[in-house]
Amino acid sequence: MHALRNVHAALTPGGFVVDTQPLSPHPRVAADSAELGTLDMREWADTIRAVDERINEAVGAGLFDMQHEERFVVTDAFDTGAQCLETISNWRDTRIPRSLVSRLDATHVMVTVEQVVRLRVFRRATRSAS
Amino acid sequence: MQRRDEVGVEAAAIAALVSLEGKRVLDVGCGEGRLTTFAAARAASVYAFDPSAENVAAARLALTDEQSSRVRFGVHGAEALDLPRERFDVALCGWSL
Fold it and tell me: Is residue B30 part of a domain?
């Protein structure tokens, strides 16, 4: 909540917050359009729920009004399975099933990861953060 | 090599809703610059920050010289954001809040 109050204070009255978050608990990993498996991002989903609670508090406190919400799929691409593995191993709250690790290690063509992303736009209310 | 959202779905969706042209933009938790280059190409000025110095270095490297002139970076979290009040028109929180 403190972070959102700081963002609120930094914005001009009527200014916008654009918030994008990946939501998929099981993003699809594929090569040559064939699915290699899915990531386990259920812990990330818990993080998003906590973030949403803080945002809801900020909206409830009259700091922001939600203007818009939509969802779309964002695709990240990697030259090889090994490169994909190296990157996603560092993603927060993300587990990679052992079977997927093996398939990625053995994949030497382009790999894609598809994530459903939620986009929300909030307008800063005119009242000051207390 | 990783290519994040190569076709620009996320940037296009944002651009369709909120204009950054000539605006003062706050890039909250900029990471490796997922949205920093998008903002720098349109905004009058950008302040981008992230708690990771490594991420900020990567975000800085992703900018052209021309874009760099409009972007300032900070290494800190949103809780430590300490800026003059009512300075920014748009806050981008790309996978960061």
Answer: yes
